């Protein structure tokens, strides 16, 4: 299952892109990992903790904060942490071939499980041809996605995917990975639904804090007790 969240306005995206464009972009190929040439043909600015890419770090922090604070995301994905934020740029010919994201990301103490992969589109589909994010689900379903700027797309990290070659223009995106407090996706859906139910009841003066509502709240809290992992 994928989710789309409008996260940034068009003008916020334009501003971001104008700040990012002049920064030094590195080849997406990590040194010593030339085997990745087979799949990776893009450029990136990764989070460097205050080295020469510090301006990009500040932008990545702002985006990460907006994602972690979004109520849509908090009540559906129960995010614990977002790791390996980076900006990806695909110029003409740029691509990222079919691959599987690693189950564990981050470094040393901060190793986290990737439950969701995310792409925040920073420029519009009209700005480039090709460059679709293609998701190939285990069911056989294939989705080709190109979202308007400012839209954040979440997809399960276990889905094979690729970015098809850009044939004209360039595609700029922010990407990152989220570990959820709730490991099982079905549990996440149940918790999201019961949270919605309790919220609806709270907003209805006839139902708020009735016996029905209180029992629904009890079930909700007990399910969180069962499934929440810090
Ligand atoms: O650029 C994108 O939208 C996805 C990039 C990607 O799949 C990755 O960095 O693992
Ligand atoms: Fe990926």
UniProtKB/TrEMBL annotation:
Q: Which residues form a coiled coil?
A: none
Family matches, as SMART domains: P4Hc (SM00702)
Q: Which InterPro entries match?
A: Oxoglu/Fe-dep_dioxygenase_dom, PKHD_hydroxylase, Pro_4_hyd_alph, Pro_4_hyd_alph_FE2OG_OXY
A Gene Ontology biological process noted in the UniProt record is: DNA damage response
Residue span(s) of domain Fe2OG dioxygenase: 81-180
Supply the Pfam families for this chain.
Answer: 2OG-FeII_Oxy_3
Q: Keywords for this entry? A: Dioxygenase, Iron, Metal-binding, Oxidoreductase, Vitamin C
Q: Does the keyword Metal-binding apply?
A: yes
Please, which domain of life does this record's source organism belong to? Bacteria
Q: Which GO terms describe its molecular function?
A: 2-oxoglutarate-dependent dioxygenase activity; iron ion binding; L-ascorbic acid binding
Q: Which cofactor does it need?
A: L-ascorbate
What PANTHER family does its record include? Answer: PKHD-TYPE HYDROXYLASE YBIX
This protein's name: Fe2OG dioxygenase domain-containing protein
Native species of this protein? Answer: Alteromonas confluentis
């Amino acid at each position: 299952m994928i989710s789309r969240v409008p996260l940034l306005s068009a003008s916020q995206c334009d501003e971001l892109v104008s700040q990012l464009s002049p920064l030094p972009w590195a080849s997406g190929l990590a040194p010593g990992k030339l085997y990745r040439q087979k799949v990776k043909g893009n450029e990136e600015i990764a989070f460097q903790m205050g080295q020469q890419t510090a301006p990009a770090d500040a932008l990545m922090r702002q985006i990460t904060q907006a994602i972690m604070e979004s109520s849509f995301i908090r009540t559906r994905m129960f995010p614990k942490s977002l790791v390996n934020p980076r900006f990806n740029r695909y110029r003409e010919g740029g691509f990222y071939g079919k691959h599987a994201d690693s189950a564990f990301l981050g470094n040393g103490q901060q190793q986290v499980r990737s439950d969701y992969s995310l792409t925040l589109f920073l420029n519009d589909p009209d700005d480039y041809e090709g460059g679709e994010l293609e998701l190939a689900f285990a069911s056989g379903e294939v989705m080709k996605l190109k979202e308007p700027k400012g839209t954040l797309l979440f997809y399960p990290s276990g889905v094979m995917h690729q970015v098809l070659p850009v044939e004209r223009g360039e595609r700029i995106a922010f990407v990152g990975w989220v570990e959820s407090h709730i490991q099982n996706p079905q549990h996440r859906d149940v918790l999201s639904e019961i949270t919605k139910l309790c919220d609806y009841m709270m907003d209805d003066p006839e139902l708020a804090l009735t016996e029905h509502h209180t029992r629904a709240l009890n079930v909700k809290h007990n399910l969180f007790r069962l499934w929440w992992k810090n």
